[in-house]
């Protein structure tokens, strides 16, 4: 019935890696994900795993090593943050188009500049179109649980997958966690038996060949299909995971949405803070709720549209600004999802919040809901592009 | 669905193309004609050729076959791109470059 | 007791306030509680003021922000009380525990009119006397446990002894020293 523990988010992910015992890790340290390869290299050194640990000189090389290892037929993993993630960017695209189900743990951190080591989502959002599946976690527990599900998902559709959590906020905070017994983890994750791989002497293959205009678009269309197919896979794997642990996951999680008139759409650790804000507001009779996005890639178009269709007003919370002069990336995709589903009733606004570690408080979220109530009452959204908790 | 290179033609659909464009055979260059990139071609005058074999190793496309007795044969025009290096190195004037339509 | 107790630690980089907050989380975890222990991170510099936090309760707190209205404040370095607003947001029903050889009443003038309990413990002296080194961590941890009652005191002493026996298996004198420091701190903490 699970193992009661207390671990930081980084410790939890490193522990999941140890339980899975993958074949290869290519990694280069960067705050705040450094602890992940640090703990894992100790497991390697102590002989607790038989993973080949490849210490490299940059994140670009870390991802290149993973690509080589995964193509060869291995389960390859890495971990990174911030500038490290975007330094990998070139190889992230290659991993996805080569259809290599590498697993990458990301402890999200702001991009420079100004130089900053604290949390926001600008790193992951910068590589959101690289073709990777992207799951976000609210807690250390979710980071661990998502990691245990990652390889099942990625390998089923032959796509690489990022398991993201908020740097420092969950990566460095000790909290209670329920671990799964290692035998159960290994049974759940299973062995990696790719159909085709480079080191198969019976089937010589060439990976990553040049693709002329005659083939490039067909290759990309097929890659897009894999992303679409991942939607059902994520749900199925979550169902199996729930049967093992009792913990439920989907593409999104809705909280108090049944009769909600105002709602926020949010990603990551601040969903927990929003949960408390909503609890308090509900006690005062406010009909408020939350949609937490777990799967950012694939984007849960139908689920979000269905959850938002009956609200009067909603705010989409972005820990990143697209600098397009009108909204954050999650707002853009949420609005597009509503339009695609033919929903135009709810008034929506975009909030940029929590950049570079700006603390997100219960009061911050309550302020958003008070603004939404005004919008719901007047029907006038006012400025739709706003910054939260910024000194005016 | 076939994974063979010969089936990855210009009419292959997105459903049938190999994932990531992986090529599931070795030596697939054998089926791709590159000789049609040629505008001029080398022609061998056997009466002048002394079988010195200076030409064969310098051919970038291995289009000058050498048999077991160590004698060169005629050019492999399926791959020869007409670069002219062979004509340049031949000390006996046995190779001349001519228009490909001749 | 309220559901979730919130504690804020003030220390200096390298002094171990972060470690102490994690040890408190550990101690509370072992008594069956839900815990959070986390420092506020920045560019880390030895000696610079740092802050760490604990949330401890019989139910899980989902909040992931820093703590602005703590029930308890622990000050690991006395000199911080003049440079950092250590009582900011501290609840009147709560308490502040300061590492100092001075009496609580003599520190009151520096605490910006804080009306709750003020406690002092000379953790540096206890540490010097019992361990021969300045490791104020363990005495401060013991003092906050005693003052807050957030962890059952007897259970805490038991757990810490077990953890020292594990940690210092090869240095038995450290077990005794740490246990004496811990118990003395729980007895010697003064309050007004």
Short description:
The complex is a heterotrimer of chains A (392), B (102) and C (192). Chain A has 392 residues and is an alpha/beta fold.
**Which segments of chain A are poorly predicted (pLDDT under 50) over 5 or more consecutive residues?**
none
Major β-sheet strand ordering of chain B: 1-2
Q: What is the CATH fold-level name of the largest domain in chain B?
A: Alpha-Beta Plaits
CATH class of the largest domain in chain A: Alpha Beta
Proportion of β residues of chain A?
15-25%
Q: Roughly what percent helix of chain A?
A: 40-55%
SSE series of chain B: EHHE
Rg of chain B, alpha carbons: 18 Å
User: Major sheet of chain A: order of its strands?
Assistant: 3-2-4-5-7-6-12
Taking the alpha carbons of the first and last residues of chain A, their distance comes to 51 Å
For this structure, the quaternary state is heterotrimer
The number of strands of chain A is: 15
What structural class is derived from the secondary structure elements of chain B? little secondary structure
Uncertain runs of chain B with pLDDT below 50, 5 residues or more? none
The total number of structural domains of chain A is: 2
Tell me the CATH architecture of the largest domain in chain B: 2-Layer Sandwich
Descriptive overview:
The complex is a heterotrimer of chains A (392), B (102) and C (192). With 392 residues, chain A is an alpha/beta fold. Chain A has 2 domains: 3-245, Thiamin diphosphate (ThDP)-binding fold, Pyr/PP domains (Rossmann fold), CATH 3.40.50; 252-387, Rossmann fold, CATH 3.40.50.920. In chain A, 43% of the residues lie in helices and 19% in strands. In chain A, the strands form 3 sheets. Chain A has a 7-stranded mixed beta sheet, with helices on both faces. In chain A, helix 13 (362-378) links the parallel strand 14 and strand 15 (385-387). In chain A, helix 1 (9-20) packs parallel to helix 2, helix 1 (9-20) packs parallel to helix 7 and helix 7 crosses helix 9. By secondary structure, chain B is low in regular secondary structure. Chain B folds into 2 domains: 1-32, no CATH class; 33-102, Alpha-Beta Plaits (2-Layer Sandwich), CATH 3.30.70. Chain B has 2 helices and 2 strands, in the order βααβ. Chain B has helices spanning 55-58, 85-89; strands at residues 40-44, 95-99. Chain B has a two-stranded antiparallel ribbon. The mean pLDDT of chain B is 92. Chain C has helices at residues 17-30, 80-83, 104-107, 123-131, 137-148, 153-167, 172-188; strands at residues 4-12, 34-39, 49-57, 72-75, 95-99, 117-121, 190-191. Chain C has 192 residues and is of the alpha/beta class. A 7-stranded mixed beta sheet of chain C has the order 2-3-1-4-5-6-7. The longest helix of chain C is centred in the C-terminal third of the chain and has 17 residues, at 172-188. In chain C, helix 1 packs across helix 5. In chain C, 39% of the residues lie in helices and 21% in strands. Chains in contact: A-B, A-C. Chains A and C meet through strand 8 and helix 10 of A and helix 1 and strand 2 of C.
């Amino acid at each position: 019935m699970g193992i009661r523990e207390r671990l930081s988010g980084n410790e939890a992910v490193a522990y999941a890696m140890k339980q899975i015992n993958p074949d290869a890790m290519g990694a280069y340290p960067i705050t705040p994900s450094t602890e992940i390869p640090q703990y894992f290299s100790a497991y390697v050194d102590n002989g607790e795993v038989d993973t080949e640990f490849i210490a490299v000189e940059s994140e670009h090389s870390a991802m290149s090593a993973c690509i080589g290892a995964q193509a060869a037929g291995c389960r390859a993993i890495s971990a990174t943050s911030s500038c490290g993630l975007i330094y990998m960017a070139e190889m992230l695209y290659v991993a996805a188009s080569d259809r290599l189900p590498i697993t990458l743990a990301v402890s999200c951190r702001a991009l420079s500049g100004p130089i900053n080591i604290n949390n926001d989502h600008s790193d992951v959002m910068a590589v959101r179109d690289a073709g990777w599946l992207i799951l976000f976690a609210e807690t250390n527990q979710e980071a661990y649980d998502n990691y245990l599900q990652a390889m099942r998902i990625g390998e089923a559709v032959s796509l690489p997958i990022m398991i993201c959590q908020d740097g420092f906020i969950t990566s460095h905070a000790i909290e209670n966690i329920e671990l799964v017994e290692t035998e159960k983890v290994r049974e759940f994750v299973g062995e990696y038996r790719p159909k085709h791989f480079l080191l198969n002497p019976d089937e010589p293959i060439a990976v990553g060949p040049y693709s002329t205009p005659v083939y490039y678009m067909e290759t990309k269309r097929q890659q897009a299909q894999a992303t679409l197919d991942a939607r059902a896979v994520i749900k199925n794997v979550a169902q199996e995971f729930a049967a093992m642990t009792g913990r439920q996951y989907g593409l999104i999680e809705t909280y108090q949405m049944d009769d909600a008139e105002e709602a926020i759409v949010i990603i990551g650790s601040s969903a927990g803070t929003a949960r408390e804000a909503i609890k308090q507001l509900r006690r005062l009779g406010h009909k408020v709720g939350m949609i937490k996005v777990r799967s950012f890639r694939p984007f849960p178009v139908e689920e979000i549209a269905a959850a938002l269709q009956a609200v009067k007003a909603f705010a989409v919370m972005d820990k990143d600004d697209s600098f397009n002069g009108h909204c954050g990336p999650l707002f853009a995709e949420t609005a597009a999802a509503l339009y695609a589903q033919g929903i135009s009733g709810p008034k929506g606004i975009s909030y940029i919040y929590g950049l570079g570690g700006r603390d997100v408080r219960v009061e911050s979220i309550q302020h958003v809901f008070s603004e939404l109530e005004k919008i719901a009452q007047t029907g006038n959204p006012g400025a739709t592009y706003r910054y939260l908790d910024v000194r005016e | 669905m076939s994974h063979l290179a010969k089936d990855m033609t210009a009419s292959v659909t997105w459903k049938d193309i190999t994932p990531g464009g992986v090529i599931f055979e070795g030596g697939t260059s054998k089926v791709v004609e590159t000789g049609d990139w040629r505008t001029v071609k080398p022609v061998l005058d056997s009466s002048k050729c002394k079988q010195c074999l200076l030409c064969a190793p310098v051919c970038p496309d291995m289009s000058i076959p050498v048999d077991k007795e160590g004698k060169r044969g005629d050019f492999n025009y399926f791959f020869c791109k007409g670069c002219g290096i062979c004509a340049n190195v031949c000390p006996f004037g046995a190779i001349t470059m001519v228009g490909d339509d001749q | 007791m309220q559901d979730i107790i919130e504690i804020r630690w003030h220390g200096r980089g390298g002094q171990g306030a972060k470690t102490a907050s994690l040890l408190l989380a550990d101690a509370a975890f072992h008594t069956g509680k839900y815990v959070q222990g986390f420092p506020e991170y920045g560019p880390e510099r030895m000696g610079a003021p740092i802050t760490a936090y604990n949330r401890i309760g019989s139910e899980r707190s989902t909040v992931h922000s820093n703590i602005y209205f703590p029930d308890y404040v622990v000050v690991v370095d006395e000199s911080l009380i003049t440079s950092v607003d250590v009582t900011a947001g501290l609840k009147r029903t709560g308490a502040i525990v300061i590492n100092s050889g001075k009496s609580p009443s003599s520190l009151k003038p520096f605490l910006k009119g804080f009306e709750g309990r003020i406690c002092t413990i000379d953790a540096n002296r206890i540490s010097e006397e019992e361990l021969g080194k300045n490791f104020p961590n363990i005495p401060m941890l013991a003092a906050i446990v005693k003052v807050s009652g957030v962890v059952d005191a007897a259970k805490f002493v038991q757990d810490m002894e077990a953890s020292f026996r594990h940690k210092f298996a090869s240095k038995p004198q450290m077990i005794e020293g740490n246990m004496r420091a811990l118990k003395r701190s729980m007895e010697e903490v003064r309050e007004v």
